[in-house]
Amino acid sequence: MDKPKIAFFDFACCEGCQLQIANFGEALLDILELVDVVEFREVMSERWDGLLDAAIVEGSITDNHAVERIKKIRQKCKIMIAYGACATIGGVNGMKNSHDPGEIRRYVYKEHYESFDTIPAMAVSDIVSVDYFVHGCPIYPPEFIKVLKSVLLGISYTVPDHAVCQECKLNENVCLFEKGITCLGPITRAGCNSWCINNGNICYGCRGMVKNPNRQGAVDVLKKYGVKLQFIKSRFMMYNTCRELKNE
After folding, report:
1. What is the Cα–Cα distance from 138 to 16, expressed in whole angstroms?
2. pLDDT digits (tens, 9 = 90+) for 62-92
3. Is the peptide bond preceding residue 138 cis, with omega within 30 degrees of 0?
4. 8 Å CB contact between 235 and 176
5. How far, in Å, CA of 216 to CA of 223, rounded?
6. Burial class of residue 180 (count of CB atoms within 10 Å of its CB; 0-12, 13-18, 19+)
């Protein structure tokens, strides 16, 4: 029986999520026992023009060429997986959406700006249907493996819709607010096992906001620690401008 054919594609991104997968080590060898990776620009030169069982896409959509390309990929794959913050919620590329597109082009490309196309940054699901999401910047390896297993078994995967704080408490971390450090864990969807906090960093909101955040609870926390709401919003927009502007 032939292995499922899987390909990795990238759009506007730093390719950090691809590197994350390339660095899986032994886990990557286990994955390769189960699937046939026919395209993965970060680690191989081969290209694939045929049909795919699954396309795994990194990066946000930021120009018309990308719109047409993602549509073509969608047409030739049975399942599409968006992975990484840029692909799932628009990511850092979305910050340009709060500026005039012409101004952005002139700033980046100088006198050659008219030669380069640009559109507001979008998540992959803003253009085509997406079957599975792996949030994060970069992705959390155990979650990616869990999603891939779900794909191979033909079952759904539901992204947790509770705050990172719950995972943080289970990991017995001291709340960063108690240390005088502002963190976005109270409003950010879980699924990463509070990975950043476990390793001495803060939560930057790269997984997007929970659907029904405890707004009053979050406000109470900010008041308790003297943190201004505008500061939290500006920090949250680093990854979430696409989603927030779209919902306004």
Report:
1. 6
2. 999 999 999 999 999 999 999 999 999 999 9
3. yes
4. no
5. 10
6. exposed
Q: Which two tokens stand for residue 45?
A: 């030169």
Say yes or no to pLDDT of 201 above 90: yes
The architecture of the domain spanning 5-153 is 3-Layer(aba) Sandwich (3.40)
DSSP classification of residue 40: E
Helix (H) or strand (E) holding 245: helix 229-247
Domains of the chain, by residue range, sit at 5-153, 164-247
pLDDT tens digits, one per residue of 87-139: 999 999 999 998 888 888 888 888 888 888 889 999 999 999 999 999 999 99
- CA separation for the pair 239, 209 (Å, rounded): 10
What's the whole-model pTM score?
0.92
Amino acid at 155: I
d(CA 108, CA 63): 14
The answer to whether the CB of 139 falls within 8 A of the CB of 195 is no
Distance CA 229, CA 198 (A): 25
d(CA 162, CA 179): 23
CB-based contact 218:185 (threshold 8 Å)? no
Closest by CA to 160, choosing from 88, 92, 208, 203, is 208
